[in-house]
Design brief:
Layout lengths: L1 H12 L10 E2 L24 E4 L3 E7 L6 E6 L2 E8 L7 E7 L7 E11 L2 E12 L5 E4 L3 H4 L3 H19 L18 E2 L6 E4 L2 E3 L4 E5 L5 E3 L4 E9 L3 E7 L4 E8 L1 E2 L6 E2 L4 E4 L10 E8 L2 E2 L3 H4 L32
Parallel strand pairs: 1-3, 2-8, 9-11
Antiparallel strand pairs: 3-6, 4-5, 4-7, 5-6, 7-8, 10-13, 11-12, 13-21, 14-20, 15-16, 15-19, 16-17, 17-21, 18-20, 21-22
Bound molecules: zinc ion (ZN).
Zinc ion binds next to strand 13.
Length: 336
């Protein structure tokens, strides 16, 4: 039964051969809903509900909640904070960005949305269909010592993981981004987000970001406004920057040759935060661009299609520079 259902669902959305499908989950039974301008029409899932593939971002909109004091969703045990949308002449509404983790199992899950109004709260419940994404399989050959870690390196890696986890726990409760997201570097995107990795013949963790091949020393910019939550020099990620955009939304920039910001710095979209390098587990210069959205590892390119460009959110306070005239990217190397 589930197989049939999934197959049907897959057939229905497969013509939308886009990197990202930004879907609006219609809460139409309760609120009138208006689709965002310039957003592709939402793919229909089961029973008129909406769906997305692994690694995508869904835009969920709750309309007409003038009096709400807090709107919060829960999806697969992850908390989805909603933020208020202001549009002149329209009733207030709330938007939540629902990240589908690259390893969420295909299936239909509940998105529970709690709308609080003072002491009172009402619960809305919706089905979200998670569809399977076809991820590539990558065979990588790396020096043995970079793959099979000795005891000391394993201990270092574990400590680093914990440090990152702790730093990302205290995310900003304010929404810090105001404009659309921008690509952090001019370069050649490899399209290997989520790829299954076989390193020196052994399966490893899937690739949790996107790699962009670019020349050594090319500028890396913050993809949106935020605060630098953590700068690192770690065994796998090399020199890296974690930017907190607020409400559980992080972007990460790894393998840098130089980091030009420090913990706690406020950054704006398009601000240079580092230089492309090959530090950590990398065999050539490139940027690893990763995203965590309320705990979900999503495709960073999903951000570029989010509909924040045309006045959906308050007017941008950040200026987005025109892309630098960067030299032509080099061939994309084998990477981490
Ligand atoms: Zn990578």
């Amino acid at each position: 039964m589930m197989m049939t259902v999934l197959k049907q669902a897959h057939l229905r959305i497969s013509p939308l051969d886009r990197t990202v499908i930004t879907a609006v989950v219609l809460l139409s039974s309760v609120f009138p809903v208006e689709l965002f301008p310039n957003t592709p029409s939402a793919p229909k899932g089961l029973d008129g509900q909406y769906s997305g593939k692994q690694g995508q971002v869904l835009v969920v909109k709750v309309k007409g909640e003038e009096q709400a004091t807090e709107v919060k969703g829960t999806f697969l045990s992850r908390t989805i904070p909603f933020f208020r949308e202001f549009r002149p002449g329209e009733p207030a509404s709330y938007i939540g960005l629902l990240g589908i983790d690259m390893q969420d199992d295909p299936g239909t899950y509940e998105l529970a949305v709690e709308v609080k109004q003072g002491e009172q709260a009402k619960l809305l419940s919706f089905n979200v269909l998670v569809a399977k994404e076809k991820f590539a399989v990558e065979h990588l050959k790396l020096p043995k010592e970079k793959v099979d870690l000795d005891e000391k390196s394993v201990a270092r890696w574990n400590a680093e993981q914990q440090l990152v986890q702790r730093a990302l726990e205290e995310n900003s409760r304010l929404k810090l981004w105001h404009s659309n997201f921008v690509e952090p570097v001019n370069g050649k995107r490899t399209g290997i987000f989520g790829s299954v990795r076989i390193m020196n013949g052994k399966p490893r963790n899937p690739h949790n970001g996107e790699d962009i091949g670019a020349p050594m020393g090319a500028d890396v910019v913050a993809s949106n406004d935020g605060v630098v939550r953590l700068t690192v020099d770690h065994i796998f990620s090399g020199r890296g920057v974690y930017v907190d955009h607020g409400l559980g939304f992080y972007t990460m920039y790894f393998h840098l040759s130089e980091v030009l910001v420090k913990d706690g710095d406020l950054v704006t979209a398009g601000q240079i935060i580092g230089k492309v390098g090959a530090t950590g587990r990398a065999t050539g210069p490139h940027l690893h661009w990763g995203v965590k959205l309320n705990g979900a590892r999503v495709n960073p390119y999903a951000l570029l299609d989010l509909p924040f460009k045309n006045g959906v959110t308050p007017p941008a306070t950040a200026t987005i520079p025109t892309p630098e005239t960067a030299p032509a990217p080099q061939a994309v190397p084998v990477k981490e």
